[in-house]
Amino acid sequence: MNTQLKRREVLAGMAGGAALLSSPAVLRAAGNEAIKMGTFFSLTGPASLFGPTQTACTALAVDQINAMGGILGKQVEIVAGDGGLSPAEAAQAAIRMTLQDKVDFIVGSHNSAVRQSIIAAIKGRVPYVYTPLYEGGECAPNTYVTADTPQQQVKPALNALNEMYGTQKVYLIGNDYVWPQKLNERAKEYIAAFGGEIVGEEYAPLGPGNKFDDAVTRIRAAAPDLVFISLVGGDNVNFNRSFAGFGLDSSIRRLSVLLEELTLFGIGAENSDGLFSSMSYFTAVESPENDAFKSQYAAKFGADGPPLSMLGADAYSGTHCAAALLNAAGSNDASAVMSASNGLSYTTATGTAVMTNRHVNKDIYLAECNGVAFDIVKSFKGVAHGETCSV
Amino acid sequence: MDGLLVAHGLNISFEIVVLALVSLGLAITLGLLGVLNLAHGEFVMIGAFSAFFVQSQGWPYLAAFPVAILACGAIGWPVEKFLIRPLYARPFDAILATWGLSLLLREMVEFFFGRGFNSVAQPIKGTVNILGADYPAFQIVVMLAAIALIATIVFWFLRSVTGRRIQAMVDNPDLAKAVGIPVDALARNTFVAGLCLAGISGVLLAPIVAVHPSMGIDYVLKSFFVLVVGGLGHILGLVIGSGVIGGAEATVSAIIDRTSGYSFVLILSLLFLWRRPNGLVAR
Predict the structure, then answer these.
(1) What's the pLDDT tens digit per position in A33-62?
(2) Residues from B in contact with A at Cβ < 8 Å
(3) Domain residue limits, chain B
(4) Pairing assessment for the beta strands B133-136 and B127-130 based on DSSP bridges
(5) Which pTM value belongs to this model?
């Protein structure tokens, strides 16, 4: 009986196999798995405000990529992870994503502590594209950074403000983790280079919201020309509200390096005098490419979609970069992708970018807050990223 | 006097007063009813959103107070009746239930107002010079209003008939019931009053801070620390707890930095939970 059953199974299997072989087109469609893209966006936690626009912009990019034939001839399917987790939890999620969900590549927009733990967890097994502005220096194998680097984001802005307003004395304030600390190291070099002086430096813990009355009091006493702000989210809002509440906005200028449309809305129109931001994307950037991007976004999500901002536009560009990388390499093999990355050009929200040393030279904008909107006061074309990762 | 010293003194005072204000509602629900309301911060958030709503309608800032009281009351009344009342004798279940409530309230506000930051304009603009220190005029008003509010509540609690009845209920609910005190209604009103006070503190804070659906978490934790250090036995616990937590954090922050200030508060709270779980003013 046992043998009989076995024989019957084998026969059934053979019949099934023959049936499938006789219809190869169906077989290929069914067996042709989608290419899996893992994402780490801020779905929860302090940065979760940015999650919806990151997710929406990525969905737009995936639509466009799929319409143009997908990646390596396969349609892209998203496996969504949460970049708002703690670094340890994010590492576990990344391991699950690579071993269990078997993603073919990862695109992430989250803080630097989470980036370091994801890199340690996936060990370069799949290509990993990191998209939001960061402190520089990330050269881990099979890791590609479309983010703004300090040399792009910070150096031209500090120089320009010094030329325009003579902001020689600078006070640094940021959250207490890797991005603000390393960014400030770079900022100090740039400030020293134009003969400026650091008159204060302090950090506030990342986590529950901070009050900044005491920091503002210290800043008043230090009397800087410029406050260089690397606070994130709610802390950036609270600090700038206190700063203006204490009346410092009329005499001291501020440059915030993570200030986009959503955060500015929380700071409020009456608290944004003399406040500047420097990034590679503002919705206010006037170019045919940005107009096209904005209208495509509006067409897909309508007027009620998540409000566009830099972190969403970066995720959009990063997704296009990942698609271009794998298509150019012909696979997701680490060494093939690494060598394909140098000189690779890909679509961004504001045009086309070219990757060198696994970083990207790009246009940077210095914007001054005008109420809760940004006025672009300076554009810096094709700013070099200044990173030296091997390829 | 040194302007810088005055400025730091004002900052420390403000931190202590705001902490006492935000903790007042929790002191009532936890201290009198024994319910550790983890959704306390969400009622502060609802108060702040009341101020935002009032502003977006073009109404005057003061209109936010009745709106916040109405909103917190309208939510608090059914919450007490259906969620809290069956759990008065089961404090751990109440913690879980109010945690669930906090998630629900956050999601509800997110649904109506979105996840983003909102800005409430300061109703009184500019700074005043106090002994050589420029200080925001509105924050002076908040301090005075908070002190007045706390003093009124304490005075009322100690002197009014209702205050006495609440004390009787807390001491011995069965006996209170036997002498004709409507314990159920009294507990409900006390609970709802605690929530409305959280809402009022939200209205007062809204023009100073970032108004967003997750802001409540910033307040419930520190209020809890205040009550851990101060103790639940007496209204003095609230004042002393706020003084110790707010004062310690602001002072260490002023001398060293925010990270040290926050760490100090955590260590202090841990030491109290470990060595002196009833706080400084035990029942």
Answers:
(1) 799 999 999 988 777 888 999 999 999 999
(2) 4, 7-8, 11, 14-15, 115-122, 125-127, 134-136, 138-139, 208-212, 214-215, 217-218, 221-222, 250, 253-254, 257-259, 262-263
(3) 3-12+20-221+230-237
(4) antiparallel
(5) 0.87
